[in-house]
Design goal:
This protein has 3 helices and no strands. It is mainly alpha-helical and about 55 residues long. The protein has one domain. InterPro entries: TPR-like_helical_dom_sf.
């Protein structure tokens, strides 16, 4: 992801993964990172909070 910096497509891919498995915390985490980088900080925080709820932190 960081090598190509194709964040919009990465976000789409992570969203598809979440649609397939809504408990796949890794996809939420990575989508959150991509959202943060492109400036969508509020959406990133939502994803990070979802990760916390899924892994129990």
């Amino acid at each position: 992801l960081s090598d190509k910096e194709d964040y919009p497509n990465a976000i789409k891919d992570f969203t598809r993964a979440i649609e397939i498995d809504s408990e796949y915390w890794y996809a939420y985490n990575n989508r959150g990172m991509a959202l943060w980088v492109i400036g969508e900080k509020d959406s990133a925080v939502v994803d990070y909070n979802k990760v916390r709820s899924l892994i129990g932190s």
